[in-house]
Amino acid sequence: xxxxxxxxxxxxxxxxxxxxxxxxxxxxxxxxxxxxxxxxxxxxxxxxxxxxxxxxxxxxxxxxxxxxxxxxxxxxxxxxxxxxxxxxxxxxxxxxxxxxxxxxxxx
Length: 107
Description:
mainly beta, globular
């Protein structure tokens, strides 16, 4: 996901204490695991991804262009994770070179 050519891992997790869902991202190049949600606040996405029921991966180089974002034509170095609430909203998670950021795709 970070574009270094090595396989990274994304895992759905649930915080045992709160029951809140989220993702843990493990970069094969090392570093600490990154927790998004699961009781940990992340950007404007909050700390619980329980309402999301689908996810997919888009290949690196996919261009993100959404009317819901001020950033248009975003190209990514790594693969992109897309989290979706079926028949509702979706957002992308990608590595911007220094951290994971989100990008609203639909509402």
